[in-house]
Amino acid sequence: MKYYSYEEFLEDLKDLYNKIDSKIGKPDAMIAIARGGLTMAHLLSLRWDLREVYTLNAISYQGDKQGDLIIKNIPNIPKGFSKVLIVDEIVDSGKSLIQIVKTLKELNPSVEFYTSAIFQKSTAVFQADFSLREPESWIDFFWEKDMFE
After folding, report:
1. Distance of alpha carbon 74 from alpha carbon 43, whole angstroms
2. What count of other Cβ atoms lies within 10 Å of the Cβ of residue 41?
3. What's this model's pTM, rounded to 2 decimal places?
4. Bridge partners, residue 83, by sequence
């Protein structure tokens, strides 16, 4: 297991911001995949001064086991938006992100959706548009661990 600290997260998020901003610029909106993408979306939205931040729930893990995907609370993207960034902390199998993007595209065919994650497994069936690291083991994120100490 690897403990992923706030300090590492902050540096990585700055790098991720620069990577995204240099390729697509400021998105019209951001969708955080709850819960892992919430902390990312908050900080990225502050950096871009972006108020159009939405969430959706994508539930597939019970403990450390992945099961069937449940997607809930899908946001309504306002008309006229063309670039929406989806953020999550990790792309593990990639199956959830495939279904999330597919669902959002079906509901919003004129929107270009971009995906981002801090961690991206190279074996995933879906590769995020923007990512930074490949996990070597299970990640204990600071937001999952520090609240309980």
Report:
1. 21
2. 24
3. 0.91
4. 112
> Which is more confident, 7 or 147?
7
User: What digits encode the pLDDT tens for the residues 14-27?
Assistant: 999 999 999 999 99
In 3D space, the residue among 61, 15, 11 whose CA is nearest the CA of residue 36 turns out to be 61
Distance CA(87)–CA(38), nearest Å, equals 8
CA 122 to chain centre: 16
Cα 14 to Cα 24, 37, 60, 70: the distances in Å are 15, 15, 28, 31
Which residue in the block uniquely carries the two structure tokens 């400021």?
26
Higher pLDDT, 34 or 145: 34
How far is 104 from 58, CA to CA, in rounded Å?
Answer: 12
| Contact of 88 with 71, CB cutoff 8 Å | no
Strands (E) in 24-64, as ranges, are 29-34, 53-62
Q: Which of 67, 100, 95 is nearest to 84 (CA)?
A: 100
| Mean pLDDT, residues 63-73 | 76
Cα 34 from chain centroid (whole Å): 8
Q: What is the mean pLDDT of the chain?
A: 92
d(C-alpha 64, C-alpha 9), whole Å: 21
